[in-house]
Amino acid sequence: MSIILISSDHYETGRAVAQQVAEATGYALLDREILGEVASESQIPEPKIRKALERSSATVGFSAKVRNRALASIQAAVMERLLDDKVVCHGLAAHLYVLGVSHVLKIRILCSGDERTSRIAGERKVGIEKARKILKKQEAAEKRWSLDVFGRDETNPSQYDMVISLSQIEPDEAVNAIVETVSYRKFQSMTYSIKCLKDKELSIRVRLALMEKYNDVDVTADGATVVVRTKALRREKRKKTESIRALAGQIPGVSYVEVHAARDIFRQAAESA
Fold it and tell me: Phi and psi at residue 111, in whole multiples of 5°?
């Protein structure tokens, strides 16, 4: 089966399309309704969980460390559900971290620029010219957010398998196009693509567990083998490596942990100064 990831430049429009696609395919819809559960499991207040996904002010009001842990908690919850297959996922930034999995169809839905401008003008009680300037700032903020958090430009069309502009295409037609495309053979799950998805789910789960103590880790997985990359001063390298290996080794699904600790030249320079 397949997984459909839908991103949009307007949340409500994207969700409406995602809901219709889910109904047409019989897939489960995965949206921001899971954030309450994520907040409960992570013990991070739900407003902060939601704020971590905001493109305009995600770094305002709480630390980058909390934001990163909130995003990692969302990713872990999303990946767990994607393993079930037959899922339409929207509004959780999955298009920025579910990469390299061939049975995932990534869709970008674009609203008409005039429609977005009119909507802003009505919501904020401003003129059209002012609304256009606000829209331009919002689009720039979306790009900065995705680059800052995931190192990827979500406004770049090349990130997606299909980009659909609703300026000329009706939502129903967009839904039909998505349903037809996901039926293509290349978007059907295979043994290798399922393994890729499982590896990503495990790596995110391990990273989340390590973030309780170490916020500077990068994790990859290959089957039951996990590779953790971090930074450390020479005097703390052995202790940190052993600690990471012990913590990661406790995660279900992990049988071997390899740790690479590069020298933290910035901390070293700061201490020398």
Answer: -80, 160
